[in-house]
Design brief:
2 strands; two-stranded antiparallel ribbon; single chain
Length: about 80
């Protein structure tokens, strides 16, 4: 496995943490290494980007203009007249 210093820029940017654990094997002579790599959460990054650009948000704001309210009222009148 490559060191983060030897990786290209895109691969290194995807890593959030890198951990190496060294221990000696059963024979006591050869060291064993366990390497753990944690990547950034892509879904969380996309969610933050969408919130920043106001594509999604904690609240849904609906602005009904006066024209729409008038059209709904006239449609209700027509529906009642047909009954």
């Amino acid at each position: 496995m490559l060191s983060p210093l030897d990786m290209d820029e895109d691969a290194a940017a995807a890593i959030s943490s890198f951990e190496v654990q060294s221990s000696f094997g059963e024979d006591g002579a050869s060291p064993d290494e366990i390497r753990k790599i944690k990547l950034w959460d892509k879904l969380a990054a996309l969610r933050f980007m969408a919130m920043y650009h106001k594509l999604i948000g904690p609240e849904v704001q609906i602005n009904l203009g006066a024209e729409l309210a008038d059209r709904l009222a006239s449609a209700r009148k027509r529906a009642r007249a047909k009954e």
